[in-house]
Each structure stands twice: as C-alpha cells, then as structure tokens.
Amino acid sequence: WLFPWGPVDFAKFAAVAGLDTYGKVRSQVSNLPDVNGMLPSRALAEDIMAPGGDRIRALCSMGTNPVLSSAGGGDRLEAALEQLDLHFSIDLYQNETNQHAHYLLPATTMYEREDLPFMMMGNMLRPTVFATKAVIPPRGQCRPEWRILNQIARAAGLGGAYSFASLRWLAKIGI
Q1: Which ranges of the chain does DSSP label H, i.e. alpha helix?
Q2: Which of the residues 42, 54, 67, 157 could staple to 71 if both were Cys, CB 3.0 to 4.6 A apart?
Q3: 9 or 90, which is more confident?
C-alpha cells in the first residue's frame, strides 16, 4: 500500500508490534493457539472457571459484548464473569457483558475524541487514512480509551499502557 510517506509493509508493522504470532500463547484448558496475539473468545469461559492459580482472574473488556457475540458466550460466560476477582469495562453503555463488571468506565464517543483509525486498515476493502478532530467536548467523566488504560497502567506502576517494554520503562522514569 502506498501512502504519501511511502509504502507500508503490514507484515513488518505486525512484527514490530508483536502481532505476528500464531501459537505463541495457548488457552489454558483447550490449548487453542493465539492468532496475532489474541486467543479465541471460545476459550474465555473455561479459562476463567479452570481450577488452580493459573486461571484468568481479571478481565478488561473494551467496547465488546462477548456474552452475546462470541462462540464462547451465553449463560456459561455470564457464570464465568461472576467468578472474576476483577472485571472492568471501558464502554459507552451497559450491555450483557459489562453488567457483570465491577467497574464500568465511560469512554468517549466518536464525536468527543480525535481519531486516526490506523489499526483497522488491514480490514478495509480500500485502505484509507483519515483523521478527525473532536466535534464536542467529552461529557461527564468520559475519556478516550487510551487515556483510561494509560492512567491504570501508571497507577499500577507500569509506566504507561504501551506495547513496547522500552516505552513503558521510559514512561516509568518520567520520559
């Protein structure tokens, strides 16, 4: 793909971001492989309900509703969500999944944030880069997802919510 600054090699981009994986991590119970750093949602309920200390004990859901939309959803996932030690959701509204969350953190709408949806370009029929400015200020306590995640990471002493360890380290020391 060609852009004004030159061609973009999405394979290299994925490798640098650590998203070029298959089977690097596996689900605990079914041993299902990750694809691009993500495990299949079908394994979520069983990995939460698995006995032992390795089970999933905390979950952040962002703008999603796997209780209704995933192959591993439904009543079994709802029961599993109730077993989590911590579940927080970043979303615009309450749904079937985040109604089980301990915390529902309000995200900004597309009108309340600047946006450059670069990550989804690989899913576009005709890849296009477009940037938008916020049209209205955020209402109430709404914040962009990246800001919420960054504040949580900083509060946890991780520096920031960055993909690269070097950036987390730099943020940790104040750079």
Answers
A1: 10-17, 44-49, 66-69, 75-81, 145-155, 165-172
A2: 42
A3: 90
